[in-house]
Design brief:
The protein is built from 15 helices and twelve strands. α2 crosses α10, α5 packs across α13 and α11 packs antiparallel against α12. The relative contact order is 0.19.
Length: 341
C-alpha cells in the first residue's frame, strides 16, 4: 500500500483536530445561538420541545437576560450527523451512545452530557405471521439500522436470553424509513428499529410488535445529547442551559397527555420531523410508555452495559474509560427548565 494514501477517517480526524474553535458551528457566529443536530425519530423528541420551549421563554425574558437560542437541524442518518460532529460543522447533536464512545476513543473531542429518552425500540413482524416467540425468528431475515445501533444490541440481548447465536438469523442493514415497506413486501421477515418506524407499519395495520424495549429492557438508552469539547470549554453556561432545557422537555413530555399532543404538533411540522402527526401520536399513545422521557439520569452502569454489549458485538474493540466519553457535571448540576407551552 502507498504509504502516502490516507483514509477518509484520517482526513476527518485531522480536520477535527485542526479547525480553529472560532470556525466551529453557529455558536462561533453568535455566542448565544447553537445549532443542534437530530434525526426525525421519537427518541429525539425532547430536542424539538426544548427548542420551542426556549423560544417561548426568550419571548418573555428581560432584555438583560442571556437569551440562548437553539435551532434544530434535521439529519437523515447517523453517518451524516457523526461526520458533522467529527468535523465541527455542528457542535451539538443527538447521537447513538456507542458511536460517541467510539469517536471519543479515536480522539474526537466529544462528550455525552445528557440522555435524550428511555426505551423506544421494537421488533416488528407481519400481522398474520406465525411468530409469537422470539426464538421463532431462527433462520429468518431480520433488518437492523446498523451494527453500531443500540437496536442491534437489543436484538443480541434477546438472542443471549434464548441461548441463540447471531448466526442463526440472516441480518441485513437497512435505513429505518425503508423497513416498513420491506416488511410489507416480504423482503424481510422482521425488523428491529426505533420509533416511529415500528408505529408506521403497525398503525397501517400490516405489522405488530413481537418485542418492545419497554417490556424487555425498560432502561434502554440509545440517543444521547453529545457536544464537542470546544463548546464545553468556551461556553459551559450554554451547555448547562441546553441540558436544563432537554431535561425540562423530558419532564414536561411525561407529565400529562395533553403535553404529548402538543409535542406531536410541534415535531410533525416542517421545521422539525416533517412527518404525519398520526404516526407520532400513535407512538405516544400505544402504549403511553412506548418511549419515555421523564427519567434522563446518567447512570454509569447503564453505559458500561452498552459498552459490554458493543464489545461482544465487535463494534467496540476494547474497554473505553467512562470519563473519556461522558461529562457528568451538567446533568449533576441540572435544574430542569420550565416548558411554557
Amino acid at each position: 500500500m502507498n504509504r502516502y494514501v490516507v483514509s477518509r477517517r484520517q482526513v476527518l480526524q485531522g480536520l477535527a483536530a485542526t479547525v480553529p474553535a472560532s470556525m466551529l458551528g453557529c455558536a462561533a457566529r453568535n455566542p448565544n445561538s447553537l445549532i443542534v443536530g437530530g434525526l426525525p425519530v421519537t427518541c429525539n423528541l425532547t430536542l424539538p420541545v426544548a427548542c420551542v420551549g426556549k423560544e417561548a421563554v426568550n419571548r418573555t425574558a428581560p432584555a438583560t437576560a442571556a437569551r440562548y437560542e437553539y435551532e434544530y437541524s434535521k439529519y437523515n442518518g447517523w453517518p451524516e450527523i457523526k461526520e458533522s460532529l467529527m468535523t465541527g460543522r455542528i457542535q451539538a447533536g443527538y447521537m447513538l451512545a456507542p458511536l460517541v464512545m467510539d469517536l471519543a476513543d479515536k480522539g474526537i473531542p466529544v462528550k455525552i452530557v445528557s440522555l435524550g429518552h428511555r426505551s423506544g425500540a421494537v421488533i416488528m413482524v407481519r400481522t398474520e405471521s406465525p411468530y409469537q416467540h422470539f426464538r421463532q425468528l431462527a433462520g429468518k431475515r431480520v433488518a437492523i439500522p446498523s451494527r453500531f445501533a443500540v437496536d442491534f444490541l437489543f436484538l443480541r440481548r434477546l438472542l443471549a436470553q434464548e441461548n441463540m447465536r447471531v448466526e442463526e438469523l440472516e441480518i441485513v442493514e437497512m435505513p429505518p424509513p425503508d423497513m416498513p415497506a420491506a416488511l410489507y413486501a416480504n423482503a424481510v421477515d422482521a425488523y428491529c428499529t426505533g420509533e416511529p418506524f415500528g408505529a408506521a407499519a403497525q398503525s397501517a395495520g400490516y405489522a405488530r410488535p413481537l418485542r418492545m424495549t419497554r417490556d424487555e429492557w425498560p432502561k434502554y438508552i440509545c440517543c444521547v445529547l453529545t457536544v464537542r469539547g470546544e463548546l464545553i470549554n468556551e461556553n459551559p453556561a450554554m451547555v448547562q442551559d441546553l441540558v436544563n432545557q432537554v431535561l425540562g422537555a423530558g419532564t414536561w413530555l411525561d407529565s400529562q397527555p395533553q403535553n404529548r399532543e402538543k409535542a406531536v404538533q410541534i415535531a410533525s411540522g416542517q421545521k422539525f420531523f416533517n412527518q404525519d402527526p398520526k404516526i407520532i401520536r400513535f407512538v405516544m399513545q400505544n402504549p403511553t410508555d412506548r418511549v419515555t422521557y421523564g427519567d434522563l439520569r446518567m447512570i454509569r452502569s447503564e453505559f458500561e452495559e452498552l459498552m459490554k454489549l458493543s464489545m461482544e458485538a465487535g463494534t467496540i474493540k476494547h474497554p473505553i474509560p467512562y470519563e473519556k466519553y461522558v461529562d457528568e457535571r451538567f446533568a449533576r448540576n441540572a435544574r430542569p427548565a420550565a416548558i411554557p407551552l
